[in-house]
Amino acid sequence: MSVDELENGKNSNQEGPAVLVQKRPDGICILTMNRPHVANASTPEICMALSAAINEANKDDATRVIIITGNGSAFAAGGDIFAMDTRTGMFEGSPNEIRNGYRKLIHSVQLAVYYSDVPVLGAINGSAAGAGNDLVAICDIAIASEKAKFSEAFVSLGLISGDGGSWLLPRVVGKTNAFLMAYTGEYFSAEEACKMGLVWKVVPHESVMEETLALAARIIKNPNGAVRATRRLIIEGGQSSFEAALDQCASIQGGLHYTPEHREKLAGVIARVKAHKK
Question: Which whole number is the average pLDDT over 174-183?
Fold first, then answer.
């Protein structure tokens, strides 16, 4: 995210909720970060609203997929550099107070996504820098506009990733690419990010939400309970032994075998197999 983009809008009036929540009848919940005048920077307001919206969506059994996007030309700019400069907001106080600011605010967003049972997709409409880049990394699958660009910008400010990028990036883009992004702090194009594995697909700018909704539609065709359990297993699988993962799989599977959704899907497959044999 360029300084100019932040500078041009830093004195703009804030309008409306920090995060717009759209709950669709099909169970897709779209969360739009809504502070374009600061490039959707990780202000306390944005962080609290986004983490709360993710947690609320998870409480609703009707929620099938969460999509995170940004309003305006940027997806998310990361830390507010002007608040850093004036040592206000989450950057106010002693080193320990700043530490607690990270834990209460930016970390709350990352943990809300991490602990989500609902699949989380990213519709990356523009620049993603610093914490914004790491928010892309923690999404299950991200689709990017051709105009999007990505930067693990922390070292360019003499900082490290304060929101878990050093843990996330090697798991998402591999060790070499993680070092490349983290060491240089440079911007990478959407196509470069796609080759790294940070995003799944690059599409024309005007098609980002349409393509992300199309992917969400493919997901919600499947039973909600099985999809939620699958997400949890994939997330937790990287932290547990194989034996523990197998035991967890067996425990969850036993319950899913008794769900009406499983019986309905099974009946459909059997009917198709029998029809094919005729």
Answer: 97
